[in-house]
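Section 5.1 Outputs to date
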Amino acid sequence: MVEAKSSPRDPVATPQPVGGLLSPHQTGTPLIALDGVTKAFPSGDDVVVVLHGITLSIFTGEMVAIIGASGSGKSTLMNILGCLDRATSGTYLIGGRETGSLDPDELAKLRREHFGFIFQRYHLLSELTSIGNVEVPAIYSGVTPAGRVARASMLLTRLGMADRLEYPPGKLSGGQQQRVSIARALMNDANVILADEPTGALDHASGEEVLAILTELNREGRTVILVTHDMAVARRANRIIEISDGRVVSDSPVDHSTDAPVGGQAAEAMSAATVTASQGGLHAWRAAFDRFGEAFKMALMSMRAHGLRTFLTMLGIIIGIASVVAVVALGEGSREKVLAGISNLGTNTLEIFPGLNYGDLRSGKVQTLKLADALEIARQPYAAGVAPTVTLSTTVRLGSLELSAQVNGVGAEYFSVKGTQLAAGQYFTDNSVTHMTQEVVIDDNTRAALFPAAKLSPVGQIILIGKVPATIVGVLQKQLTGFGNSTSLSVYLPYTTVQARFTGSSTLRSILLLVSDDTDSTLAEQAATKFLIARHGVLDFFIMNNDDIRQTITATTDTMTLLIAAIAVISLVVGGIGVMNIMLVSVSERVKEIGVRMAVGARRSDILQQFLTEAVLVCIVGGILGIMLALLAGQIFAALGSSFTFVYSATSIIGAFAVSTLIGIAFGYLPARSAAQLDPVVALERE
């Protein structure tokens, strides 16, 4: 973190120590010292040596011009001086500190705290305004937002840019862009200003203004290093170092005793008052949060600037997330539909039949399943309800209409055990069973067949069942069986009535047992089997466990849901690969931006965070859109009257959102890491 500097610099000609780097005078320890610095680059199988054993010293407060023809190595030397590049051999000390052993983040700290770069091509970030560009170095130094804005505004104002604070670089002239570049170089109160051909892209008047500003900065005590091929520009310095073919060929002072005073509007503005750092320090967590805010803002800008590409990148994530959420919702809806159908057979019920199985030919001769068995089972702790049943087929008549129907003799608890619902009327009661009343409850199929006119209520009507008249007391709602719609006609009478008036036998067709909620149906089945064997003395019955049907069908739906969800996850992975691909493209397009950020002090972690934030943000937005698409699909299916229902799960939605975020991290890390690993000097030179 950069500490706030409270003592202003007086604009004096004598060089003074600045920024805490101990280099008192030219006769003392140099601020910058190079000893035998060589720089070589591989070129195919050969090695090209650009700098040959450079040895020189620069003292605090000097204004030095490094001059040479194109290709002489002066820009390479400047990159090494600014810690943008490393020497192949030799030593480079700044303030007595050896830079060769520093890691990338330590070099970034040096650039952030001690160097200000002014580039020939300005290298401003096109997405930011003037004030936004100037603020960038202070973001990485941990300066408060208020302090950044105040200092950036002050610097731009003193450079004559007060009316251009909110202008993007594209709306500024070359001279104005260079002034923004100068303000950015001064943002962290740099001790050393490195200017690479600062007037090369400017007209004469703008160039003079820039040189005047640099001269005044030097007079305030800053060390200014100019790199130029123009001798007229070089003579504005106090010392000229000439390089030719990577070697220092001359190093001489410049006599300014006969020069005219340097002036200009911008220079006068800069010297009118000292430029001091008004930046407040942040706690480490707040500084980190502030850098994250910058990464988030840049991610939004990048996404907006490439809207179509961003959307196409999101498309794989959108489809994958929508598929996962919709498939899970559809699977849950199907499960509930199946369970609703199975509930018509009796949810968590056991049905006890005579014989050894459905195909047992002797089952009709087994007469041991009696009402007493049902009454005794009802007393067992695992029984929540018991309903004896008797069944036969006969005709049902209403007037001249005669139909075949299944007659079910049941107890009063049968309807609650089966989970049926009334459409009209009421059920018969225990009193009806005791008194063998001729009351009947009909199902919806029977109602539709006997009473096709919707206006006529069946309740209270008398129908003839076989030869027995019965009064309709209730009508059941239309229900699904566990295997689809039933097309048979069913009527329900008290089982005592059926035994007395139809079968003439006390034998039961079955006993329907509702298992209590706190008992496992399999254990209840085992207990009931043991109980009846003890009563009958022989195994002359079998038990159908309806929960087995439920478990089998739900297991099947779970398998299908998992299979389809796996396919959806594959689309998510494909979408993630698309994110990685596009992020790699984004990194290649923004290499120069990365170089600029590194030059002003961005750590590798800052660059990693910026691009990783963008990848995660793309996936998060894609995930949100995917969830919205899945919800919309459910609404569309419902509006179209589809029999499929979507039952959305908060767990699946949250899980899908988490997965989309993880995909952003997993597939965005590689491009972000490749951006963070870039060499700043290589990034700056990339076109």
